Amino acid sequence: MKSVLMIGQSNMAGRGFINEVPMICNERIQMLRNGRWQMMTEPVNYDRPVAGVGLAGSFAAMWCMENKEEKIGLIPCAEGGSTVDDWAADNTLFRNAVCQAKFAMQDTELIGILWHQGESDSCDGKYQTYYEKLQTMTAELRQELNAPEIPFILGGLGGFLGKSGLGANCTEYELINRELLRFAQEQKNSYFVTAEGLTPNPDGIHMDAASQRRFGVRYYEAFSKRKNVLSPLENEMELLDRCINVPYTKGEKMHLAMMGFISGKMTYEELCRKFENI
C-alpha cells in the first residue's frame, strides 16, 4: 500500500460541511486511526469536533482511479489554527507527524506530503520569514523520514480571505501565496496548487466542501504530473465525477448501509434486510 502524509492547519484537516457533497466510499482508500488502517470515512483528520470534508478524499480517489490494483493510506496530522512556527522540528506537531509517518511506513510506501497552511501567518508581516521557516521544516522532515526526494505539494490560500468573518484578519494572504509559489519554483520536488476560484463556508476562512473536492483534484494533478498548478483545471469537475462515481463493491455497499443505520436513516431491521440483499 502507498501512503501520503497530511500536514498544515484547518483547511488541510478540512472544514467542509459533510452533507453538501456526495460521500466518497472506496475500500482502497484507507486512513490511519488508532494505529490501524481503516476504510476512509470523513472527517479523515479529526482535529476538532467541527472537522469535515478536506481535500485528501478526492486526492485519494483520483489516485485510485489511476492505480486500480493498489490501496492508498491517508496519514492525518493537520492541526487547525497552527502557525508555521508550530511546525518547527522541535515542536509537538512536527514530532507527531514524524511518528505517525514512520509508523505508517512500517507497512506502506510513503509517496507524498500534502501541506496547506498559512492563514494563521497572513498578518503582522509574518510573510517575511515564512519561506525560510518552511524551508527548514521541509528539509528536517525529509531527513527524519529518510525521504529526500519525496514530493511536497503545497496549496495556495483562498482569494476570499481578508474580507469577512474569521478570515477578515488574513489581510496578507496574497503575500503568503507569493512565498508559497516562490518556494515551489525554487525548491526541488515541491509543487504549488492554486486556490483560484474556490469558495468559503459562511465563516470566511474555511473552504466549503465542494471547493475541497476540487482542490484535491488539483493537488493530485500537481502530484502526478510533478508540476505547479497555476490555474483551475478545465476538466476538474469531470475528473471529480469520474473518480467518485464508480461501481460499489460488496464491502462498500455494506459500509454505506451501516452509515445509513448509524445516521438514523434506517432501522436495524431494514439494515439486516439490506445486508441480505447485498
Blueprint of the fold:
Elements: E1 2-8, H1 10-13, E2 29-33, E3 36-39, H2 56-66, E4 72-76, H3 92-104, E5 109-116, H4 127-144, E6 152-155, H5 173-186, E7 190-193, H6 209-225, H7 236-244, H8 250-262, H9 268-277
Parallel strand pairs: 1-4, 1-5, 2-4, 5-6, 6-7
Antiparallel strand pairs: 2-3
Helix pairs in contact: 2-6, 2-7, 4-5, 6-7, 8-9
Q: What can you tell me about this protein's structure?
A:
This protein is of the alpha/beta class. The protein has a 7-stranded mixed sheet with strand order 3-2-4-1-5-6-7, sandwiched between helices. Strand 5, helix 4 and strand 6 form a beta-alpha-beta unit. Helix 2 crosses helix 7, helix 6 crosses helix 7 and helix 8 runs antiparallel to helix 9. The longest helix has 18 residues. It is globular and about 60 Å long. The two termini are about 25 Å apart.
Beta content comes to: 5-15%
Radius of gyration: 18 Å
The low-confidence parts are: none
Structural class call reads: alpha/beta
Q: What about the largest sheet?
A: 7 strands, mixed
Number of strands: 7
Strand order of the largest sheet: 3-2-4-1-5-6-7
Count of DSSP H/I helices: 9
In N-to-C order, the SSE pattern is EHEEHEHEHEHEHHHH
Q: In one word, what is the shape?
A: globular
Kindly report how far apart the N and C termini lie: 27 Å
Query: Mean pLDDT, as a whole number?
Result: 97
Helical proportion? 25-40%
